[in-house]
Every structure is written in C-alpha cells, then in structure tokens.
Design brief:
The complex is a heterodimer of chains A (147) and B (52). With 147 residues, chain A is α+β, with helices and mostly antiparallel strands. Chain A has helices at residues 68-85, 98-110, 112-118; strands at 8-12, 17-24, 27-37, 43-51, 57-58, 90-93, 119-125, 128-131, 140-145. In chain A, a hairpin with a 2-residue loop joins β7 (119-125) and β8. The longest helix of chain B has 11 residues, at 35-45.
C-alpha cells in the first residue's frame, strides 16, 4: 500500500502500546494506539486517540491536524506489527461513534484486496461474525493474521 | 533494561519505519485507556462465536 505513515513508533509494554507524534497545522500531538485485553482471552481491542495531559488516551478527540489518512495508515502498520508478534490473537476494532466505525469499514474496504493477502478479516453484523463484505453495516471488525 | 531501536519494513507497506522499543514496564494501566470504549467492546463481544 502506498500510504504515508509516521516513521517513528514508540513501543511499550510488549507491543501493547504504540505512541507516535501527529504533525500538522495544529501542532505536534501525541497519539496512542493500544491493544487492550478484552473479556475474550484471544481478542484484543484496538483503540487509538490522543494522549491527554494526565497520560490517558481519549478516543473521542478530534484533533483535526490534517493527517487523517496518514494516521489510519500508521494504525494499520501497527496492527501488522502487532499480529506479527502475536499471530494467534484477534484484533477487534470499532469506532467511538457510528461515523467512525463507517470510516474504518470504508478504509478496510478500499484496501481489502491487499489486506486480505495477509489477514483474515471479518465484520460483526446482526448475523454474527461473518467474512468481511464491503457494503454491509457493521458494529466492528475482527482481524487475524492468516495462518 | 533499555530502549531498542529496530528498522522495520512491513510487506504490506513499502515504507521503512523505526521502532523504538522500550523494554521496561511503562506503568501505563491499559484498563484506564478509553474505559468507555473498552466497556462497549466487551459488550459487543459478549457471546460472540469466533471464526474457526
């Protein structure tokens, strides 16, 4: 894929956290990608957002720094690294709003051919977890490295 | 324990990046990262059957 990505990723806690700096017209903003355990032992929740002054992460922030696609590509890059490290785990992601979930679904759909060479991708629907389809409303997306 | 710097190139992207890997525990509590979203995800995953 030919997207720009942020080139310095600061990794902590056995790849659970990837920090990087968004650079744009609104300044330099510390961003965080986190892979957080869920109630299912092999499913990890992918969250990302701005790091607040108290060191916590807000996935509801809108930093409007003009680099949305570069950030999304950096998140995809981090997923690739994480699943290289933990090939038996699933990553689940959903947006903090319905609009963001749609954005992520569209981003996956747009790059599905390349992504599906490397990953098994599923979407969560009213019918349960099904193989990813481009035009189906979804509440979340599940990804695993192909074995 | 110290930081390790690794050059990395994903087969998915044609871009080389630098991974700065901190080997000491950060002290960051993952449960405090987006707790509302985490609760939403746990709710969405309740009873979900994973693909075999």
């Amino acid at each position: 894929m030919q997207y720009e990505v942020y080139k310095n990723l600061y990794i902590k806690d056995a790849y659970s956290i990837f920090d990087f700096f968004s650079i744009g017209p609104r300044g330099i903003i510390l961003k965080r990608i986190a892979f957080i355990p869920t109630t299912n032992d092999i499913v990890y929740n992918l969250s990302f957002g701005d790091v607040t002054l108290d060191g916590e992460m807000s996935s509801y922030s809108v930093s409007d720094n003009g680099d949305r696609n570069k950030i999304l590509a950096t998140v995809a890059y981090a997923v690739d690294i994480y699943l290289e490290e933990y090939p038996d785990r699933y990553i689940f992601f959903t947006g903090s709003t319905d609009g963001r979930t749609r954005l992520y679904r569209m981003a996956v759909a747009l790059n599905f051919d390349e992504l599906s060479f490397k990953f098994d991708i599923y979407c969560q629907t009213d019918m349960g977890i099904i193989p990813f389809q481009k035009n189906i409303p979804t509440t979340g997306i599940l990804v695993k490295r192909k074995s | 324990m110290k930081k390790k710097v690794v050059k990395y190139k994903s087969t998915l992207f044609n871009k080389e990046i630098r991974l700065i890997i901190d080997e000491k525990p950060s002290g960051i509590d993952l449960k405090k990262q987006c707790p509302a979203k985490q609760a939403k995800v746990n709710e969405l995953l309740k009873g979900v059957k994973l693909p075999s």
